[in-house]
Amino acid sequence: MKIRRNRIFWTTASILLSRATADLPYNPASAYLPPNSADGPVYAFLPTSGSAAAFELASLNISSTVPSSSLPYTTLSSSLPFLDGVDGTAFTTAMDEEGSLLVYAGSCATGSAGSNVWVYNTSKANGKDSWTKRDVIAGSSVPTSRLSGANYLSSGIAFSSDGSSLDTTFYVFGGMCPTTATAGSTWTVAANYSNNMLSLAPPPQPAGPYDLEILSSRGPPIAEAGFTITGLQPTFTNATGAEQNRQQNFVLLGGHTQNAFINMSQVALFSLPEQTWSFIGVDSPDVPKSGLSRRSSAIIDSRSGHSAVLTPDGKKIIVFGGWVGDITTAASPQLLVLNLGTGYGGTGDWAWSIPEQTGTGLPSGTGIYGHAAVMLPGGVMMVTSGYSIPTSNAKAKRSGSSPSSTTYFFNTTSNTWLPHYTNPSSLTHPPHSTPEQVPQTGLSSSSKRAALASGISLGLLALIAACLVGVWYSRRLRARRDARE
């Protein structure tokens, strides 16, 4: 495997055409499972209509069995305070190591001056009272630019070198900002794109403003939007005292520019706390041809609007969904696996693979974008919300359409789509049984304990009786022998 730095390969231009007339660019859904939380809940930012300003924050109890239809979400905020139904607001989300939600939101047209950091404390979980608004102060590295604010289709990282929320820096990369109020076929073209990595450092005072800087890392990826950034498993080194220093790599893949899509034959790697970029080539998947020994490489479409989550063993990234060319064309295949290379959690070279799937997933020929994906305990990926991409012979405008109400569960070990999700902890620690549910062989009632005691007593009496009979019989035999003598 070769690491190629300061270079990126991307597809040649194909004008991005779109038949949609709804709010574009869109704000995608997102979902998070708090770290070290086997029972959840999952927290999700979900669109409530085709408008980029209509969102809610909800939670989902995953402690037992969850069906794929009609998810029992609990609404925490029926509207988001940084949107309030106003169009033109972009936002990027992340979750820190203590489970708090971070949001960078605002109007990209006004740069950092029109953006704020919002923090949602999940330990309170009582609606708007849990939201805290923080101002942003731009440092000397931040020019007066439209692209220093919250952009559409960017991606965020919450990172702390010691695992503390007090030391968590919120990183936001890339994204796009429309130059005019456009929709339809020109929404991707009439926009400025960013390749800035913004650093939002927490304040020393609890209620103080966040400090905004633009990192000066050499050789960042090309300016783009619609990509994903997925954290790999962190490593820790001992520091002075009892503290440990955390190091973690983040994989950036996919995305689009004004007139092109980023090629999937290469991924970018962002390393923290070093704040450096590098690039790694990815091998194409092999597929069998007519002969057993003849193989060819499968074609993987570039894509935007997809999701990417790490498997629990840290060896693979599951990529799902996305569009290419325009939002009515599904990237193919919709499901693929990025096998990580040696030194990054996997073995060998970085390579794509297309798994054989069982169960009922997306209908054939369709797709999804703008959805949320999160890895649940047991290695099951949950995909929820987003917008459906119809088959090529049934193109439908996104205008006026509602977000998808279908949820998918994908077992990343067996490559199976599941009709429901069952938390492994509910199998090893079942809920308390009612008296009617207690097995008849149990000892949960006083009557059963009394019966057991009675059985033990009878057994002891029978044993004593047998011993007495044995003694009597032995003495009788001895008496007969004495009589014969």
User: What is the percentage of strand-forming residues?
Assistant: 25-35%
What about the largest sheet?
A: 5 strands, mixed
* Radius of gyration of CA atoms, rounded to a whole number: 30 Å
Structural class of the helices, strands and pairings? Answer: mainly beta
Strand order of the main beta sheet, please? 10-16-15-12-11
Shape: globular
State the end-to-end distance: 101 Å
What assembly state would you assign to the polypeptide chains in this entry? Answer: single chain
Low-pLDDT windows of residues: 1-22, 395-400, 431-454, 480-485
Tally of individual helices: 2
Say how many strands there are.
36
Mean pLDDT: 82
Helix proportion: under 10%
Structural features, described:
With 485 residues, this protein is mainly β. The protein has helices spanning 424-428, 446-484, and strands spanning 30-32, 42-47, 55-60, 65-67, 73-77, 90-95, 101-106, 115-120, 131-134, 136-138, 155-159, 169-173, 176-178, 191-193, 197-201, 210-214, 228-231, 235-238, 244-253, 266-272, 276-281, 286-288, 295-297, 307-310, 316-320, 323-324, 326-330, 335-339, 351-353, 367-369, 372-376, 380-384, 387-389, 408-411, 416-418, 420-422. The strands form eleven sheets. The chain has a five-stranded mixed beta sheet, with no helix packed on it. Strands 17, 18, 19, 20 and 21 form a five-stranded antiparallel beta sheet that branches. A four-stranded antiparallel beta sheet has the order 1-2-3-5, with no helix packed on it. A hairpin with a 5-residue loop joins strand 24 (307-310) and strand 25 (316-320). The radius of gyration is 30 Å and the shape is globular. The N and C termini lie far apart (101 Å). The model is unreliable at 1-22, 395-400, 431-454 and 480-485 (pLDDT under 50).
